[in-house]
Each structure stands twice: as structure tokens, then as C-alpha cells.
Amino acid sequence: MERLLRRRRPPAPEPLRRLRTRYQRQRHHAPPGEARHRRPHQRRPVGLADAVALDFFDFAQHGKATTDWLPLLASVYAKEVDEARSPTDYAHPPASAKPAKDSAAYTGTYNNPYYGKATVTADDKGALTLALGPKPMLFPLTHYDGDTFSFETTGEMAAGRTGVTFADGTVRVESLDANHLGTFTEQ
Questions:
Q1: Which residues does the UniProt record annotate as the domain Peptidase S12 Pab87-related C-terminal (predicted)?
Q2: What is the rounded CA–CA span in Å between residue 30 and residue 45?
Q3: Which helix (H) or strand (E) holds 111?
Q4: Angle ∠(60,26,51) on CA atoms, nearest 5
Q5: Domain end call among 27, 54, 84
Q6: Which of 28, 22, 11 is nearest to 47 (CA)?
Q7: Counting runs of H as helices and runs of E as strands, what totals does the chain give?
Q8: Contact 163, 148 (CB under 8 A)
Q9: Boundaries of domain holding 134
Q10: Is residue 36 part of a domain?
Q11: 3-state secondary structure of 100
């Protein structure tokens, strides 16, 4: 049994080796400001899984790769991320930014029929944190202007900073509001 466990796996098929090498080359020689300089949780998707699947179908149907899928899919994903990016630059508040209210005015639990529960909490220094999702992901909020804050989106479709606006017992999360579903109502 021990001898079986020590056996080496057979090498990956040629198309998979080529794709893996191409992806590694792309990842390690990224242009300045891209994946090399981003934190791991903020890397943009490049379509690797899709490219592997499409290469598989090419080999199954044609016996060879018909298209270099990785650059094509990387451009598609990059376009989607760019379209999801906020038109407002939340990293730089306006010079005439209005002050935020006391943190207690924003804390609470908010509900949304599509996204579920959102909770805003404040630490002992008044810093706000937004918790979203069934296994809550925590997003520290940064004040932008008046009742508008922002946080850095994360995950596969991270698109930079997004806005969070509090108004009349609601909170609107800009990155979730593309289809007008991003407004949460206070419980």
C-alpha cells in the first residue's frame, strides 16, 4: 500500500500542460499594476477554467486546439470587471465632503428579499463594518461624503471600491444594485 501511495502521477496531457504553462507565464509576467501587484483575493479572473473546458471540446471535436481561448476569455472577463467598476472614485473623497453622523445612526440589521441580511456594526472607535451574506463577509467601511461610505470589493469579480449609501432606514450597496436589487431596509 505504501508503495502505491509513493507512485508518481502520470504527466498531464499535452493540451493541459500547454495551457498551464501559458497561464503561469501570463500570471508571472503580468503588466505593471496587474496581478503581480494585487493581493491574492483581488486577482482578476482570467477565464482559465473556461479555456480548459473549451480546449477539451476542441480536442474532442477537432483533434487539436482551434483557438487560443485564454487571451480571448481574459479580455471578456476584463471587460465585465471594467463595466462593474463604479463611475465614482471612492478612494478620493471630495474636498468639500460633509461629515458623517454618529456611527450609531448607521448600525443595525437590514434586509433585502434578494440578497438577504446585511449587518452594520461599529467598533469602540466608531469604525463601521458591513457584513453581507449567509456566511458573512466583513467589509470595513470608509467615509466618503455625508451618509455615503465605501468598501473594497473582493473575490472573483472584484471591481475596486464601491459605494454604500444610507438614507431613511435603508442602505444601498452600489455594486449589488446593477439590477436595482441592492437596497436593504432596516428591520
A1: 93-170
A2: 13
A3: strand 108-112
A4: 20
A5: 84
A6: 22
A7: 4, 9
A8: yes
A9: 103-186
A10: yes
A11: coil
